[in-house]
Amino acid sequence: MVTIQEVAERAGVSISTVSNVLNKKKFVSPELQERVYRAVEELDYVADSVARNMKRGYTKNIGVITSDMCGLFYPYVVQGIYQVLSQEGYHLTICDAHVEPGEKSLVKEREAFRSLFSNRVDGVIFVSSVSSREEAAYLEEIKREAGRLKKTPLVSLERDFSAFGIDSVYYDNRKTAGLAVEHLISRGCRRIAHIAGPRQEQIPEERKEGYLETLDKSGLGSGYIVYGDYSHQSGYQAMLELLSAQERPDGVYCANDQMAVGALKALKERGIAVPEEIKVVGSDDVFVASVVEPGISTVHIKKTSMGQRAAELLLQRIREGEQDNLPPAAEEMEIRLVVRKSTDAQARDDWSVQDW
After folding, report:
1. What is the mean pLDDT of the chain?
2. What is the largest CA-CA distance in the chain?
3. pLDDT for residue 56
4. So what's the pLDDT on residue 100?
5. CA-CA distance, 325 to 153, in Å (whole number)?
6. Is there a domain that residue 345 lies in?
7. Which region holds residue 93: left if phi is over 0, alpha if psi is between -120 and 50, else beta?
8. Is the keyword DNA-binding in the record (predicted)?
9. Which residues, other chains included, contact 41 with Cβ-Cβ below 8 Å and sequence gap of 6+?
10. Span of 100-109, 152-161, 232-241 with lowest mean pLDDT
11. Residues 208, 253: contact at Cβ < 8 Å?
12. Could you tell me the residue range of the domain that residue 131 belongs to?
């Protein structure tokens, strides 16, 4: 492998001059620059950016932990993260801590954090499935690990961990569910069921709580809950279970859009008209919600913007370094209802793709 010393000897300059030219740290005359670049080309020299960055105390690598990279939600979040960090010369290491039914929820998360910290990433943006009951002890453990080898800043996605000293970019899951259920109520639904997400995860638990709180506030009883795993297959099976109930629902709130797609398939196979007989609302507004027939009414979450803002907060922490004394950020993302034909037969087709 060609060394920087060999480049300097070929160009007839000092090693520091080669470094200044390649890193653009100091002014070097055009004549010397030309000699250095010619030597680099002749020797086919490639600077060891990893070693150089390590010497400076950073790796230009950021860890990202998601809970389902193969789903339809997180790719857009990661896209937002990448858009910001790539402009600053950072690379991403992505860990998928998705939990299969029967698995312990935090095992993969812990493994992902340890792997990223051992590789000395400059920061971690993460989604956690830790329950509210366990979060205090768990987050303190993660923060200790983050500071063991070097000070590694953390940013939480989807949940507010600012009370534990962690920057957070999130949305209110209870509010998300409330918006969906209130929409069904406004369309005349009175028997509103819920296809919930995985029991062991906190985000679907909060959406379920938002569903129950809204029903209670509206005097519509305790509701009917069937659990899925966020997949369209589980939404299909959950809807079949709801249809077999003694009193069929007239409205269904699904914890994500993929399960809503499966629910629509079950209704179509049974010849049940949507929205005339049963209305369906999803959550997240991923792309399938606007392309299926009927289009799915849903709660739009700014996924790409959430990733972008998380990356901006992380960069701020990295730049502050040891002098960082800013309080933890807690930034709640805006949500909005998107009405399509699964609840309103007169709604216009919505093919626009904005901030998926």
Report:
1. 91
2. 89
3. 60
4. 73
5. 12
6. no
7. beta
8. yes
9. none
10. 100-109
11. no
12. 58-171+303-334
